[in-house]
Design a protein that fits this description.
The chain is an alpha/beta fold and 142 residues long. It is built from five helices and five strands. The chain is globular and about 40 Å long.
Amino acid sequence: MAPDRWPDLKGVHVVVIDDNDDSCRLLEQALNYCGALVTVFSAAEAVLEAMNEYLPTLIISDLSMPGMTGLEFMRRVRERPVEKGGLIPAIAVTAHYEDFAAVMARAAGFEAYLTKPIKFVTLCMLVDHVAGIKRERDDSAA
């Protein structure tokens, strides 16, 4: 893999939510490789609480988790006011290959959807793209 294919994610803070420790660790390593700051959570409820203290640039969430699912989590994020993170871009990840899962993820408020196993360069490029859109929005609002 050519090094120039990996985007520079310095300055991007990504929250990763997945109940599978191995998945969290792999996503964290790939994003760290590109320079992103990564905070990992195993439960969506904890992220909603943390969002009262700080807001990440982007959220990556598994869809199938015990307790609050990724879909329910994203619906709750989208209900929040903008200043509390209601418009934070998000990427759904899941092992489900059914077309309806992607449709449900978009309807819940995710901007993008990836199926496992994930190609990490694709993940990092997508994070760069989605975070870039957020940065453009932030710049135009200032």
